[in-house]
């Protein structure tokens, strides 16, 4: 149903946190596979991905990766991001009813300080992106990052909240 894609570079702990949240979604039948795209990590990211049953790529072409995804929908998410309770049911419902992309809502408990939010553009993957596989393949270009792939998609905002990856990095 859904393939999860993440990029990482020396983010072993962040990767483990996100993967632990995805276990329940795999058991529920929502997540069919997880693909981790690595940027020359020197930590244990590959071991974490392997232990979780993920496909781990050190060298890849984004078009080939997208074509190999098992799910008809893709979830692009940053390593360290964590969807909050209720997300599995809401995503299942969204995939069954809607055809357009979606993003999670910002977490009410983890917000940047007020002055950091003023005039700041939100990075394309800060709240994840759920996108039909066909749409992703249509816009993908060789050498493109997941962040570049996620730009410019008008997405429905899900009620489910996401704790963004920057929260883990800031601690």
TrEMBL record:
SUPFAM superfamilies reported for this sequence: Nucleotide-diphospho-sugar transferases
What name is this protein filed under?
Answer: Glycosyl transferase
């Amino acid at each position: 149903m859904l393939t999860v894609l993440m990029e990482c570079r020396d983010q072993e702990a962040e990767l483990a946190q996100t993967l632990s949240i995805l276990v329940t979604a795999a058991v529920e039948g929502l997540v069919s596979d997880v693909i981790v795209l690595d940027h020359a990590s020197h930590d244990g990211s590959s071991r974490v991905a392997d232990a979780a049953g993920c496909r781990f790529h050190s060298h890849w072409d984004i078009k080939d990766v997208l074509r190999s995804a098992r799910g008809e929908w893709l979830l692009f998410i940053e390593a360290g991001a964590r969807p909050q309770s209720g997300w599995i049911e809401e995503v299942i419902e969204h995939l069954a009813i809607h055809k357009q992309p979606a993003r999670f809502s910002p977490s009410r408990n983890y917000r940047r300080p007020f002055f950091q939010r003023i005039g700041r553009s939100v990075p394309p993957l800060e709240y994840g992106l759920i996108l039909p596989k066909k749409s992703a393949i249509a816009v993908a270009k060789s050498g493109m990052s997941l962040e570049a792939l996620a730009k410019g998609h008008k997405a429905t905002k899900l009620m489910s909240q996401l704790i963004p990856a920057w929260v883990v990095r800031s601690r």
